[in-house]
Amino acid sequence: MDRANAISSAERYFDSGAFQERLTRLVSLPTESQDSNRADTLQRYLESEIRPWLETLGFTCTILPHPRAKSSFLFAERIEHAGYPTVFGYGHGDVVRGMESAWREGLSPWTVTCVGDRWYGRGTADNKGQHALCIAALQSVLEVRGKLGFNAKFLIEMGEEVGSPGLRELCTDHHHRFQADVLIASDGPRLTADRPTIFLGTRGVATFDLSIVARDGGHHSGNWGGVLSDPAIQLAHAMSTITSPTGRIAVAEWRPDGIPDSVRAVLKDFKIDSGPDGPIMDPEWGEPGLTPEEQVFGWCSFDVLAMRAGNPETPVNAVPPDAWARCQLRFVKGIDPEQIVPALRRHLARHGWSGVTVEEVEEMSLATRLDPADPWVTWAAGSIARTTGKDPAILPNLGGTLPNDIFADVLGLPTIWVPHSYPGCQQHGPDEHLLAPLAREGLAIMAGLYWDLGSRP
Fold first, then answer.
1. In this structure, are residues 440 and 14 in contact, taking their beta carbons and an 8 Å threshold?
2. Are residues 242 and 150 part of one domain?
3. Portion of the chain with pLDDT greater than 70, in percent
4. 3-class DSSP state for residue 17?
5. What is the mean pLDDT of residues 190-199?
6. How high is the pLDDT of residue 275?
7. CB distance 361 to 230 below 8 Å
8. Which of 28, 110, 154, 207 lies 20 to 30 Å (CA to CA) from residue 410?
């Protein structure tokens, strides 16, 4: 009954409106890490909202600065007994730009507005609402048990949306202090709104620019067209060697050496459902012979994010002097990250395009994947099923990217992510929202997980 009481306590916290009130305060702070003028707001989020909340739960909180970071980090710990297991929690309080003018009439990114089951506001889904659910669930366990029954550490950063600058160095510098047995955190979407989900890692991401500079300045296409090389045409042909016309990757070093059997097994358990608001999938795109689930969670994907030649807004009759494209590779565990860009340069050279410049433009995030057969996965899945009556979908890795490699590789933690959003939440765009039923169920799930962690032998 004590477990049930902890879950009921979490649900009462939601039903009373206390969680909505808390989330409203968090969302009201415009913590846009992409805006250099928001530094004070980023700091205030930690100091005035998260720190006092955690301190009331018996956590010792420390503000940890780093010169690379947009704002300081908040590290909190509650150590109950040296023999207890230790869970490491993580969240980020920064958000992408508010895009105020693009939201629907009556909605604001800095106000939680409830319309039916949707709670609109920037950060409701990514990630203020999700780490607030975790903290509230810890609170519910403490209310019922009087203690957690495990040691807890929590790290909140304010720069995830700009690549988590300083996070890797901070975890390296404080490696001993941050030691734990497992990471349990919440971010990203469920596979579908109606099914609880666990993901065990993330695909890595490498972002780079391809460019050709032929000459200084454009030249009249009537006078010079036909005798001057067109860098836009050249770059298009160079990029056409990277994949087939249907997106099959042709760079050998970017192709995984198969999909592990344990990964294939869990991927058979679910289907990607884009839902009524999502895009229609293109069945002929990508690696032949793979299911959509294997394409997204077990394979690599290459995309051209943007291209430019000449002046797209006001085209003129001139042969452009240069062409540029920003490209991205999402890659899975098993791809050598140090060879991604060198392999592309070698590939282009073999096809006669050594004149294409390849330049990395963002710090690479590495791929991670906890084995789905790991005992922590079995334990977490069992706890969630016990709470909800549903078998959770288990993703070997998220299709997107989080700084999970820092926790998995630098801190050496098994990583269990339990998301409480859904694919249609519109994170990073106008009208971002959290679904109230998912939030309520998420509170129950996290309370059950934390209760079970404190009950483990």
1. yes
2. no
3. 98
4. coil
5. 94
6. 66
7. no
8. 207
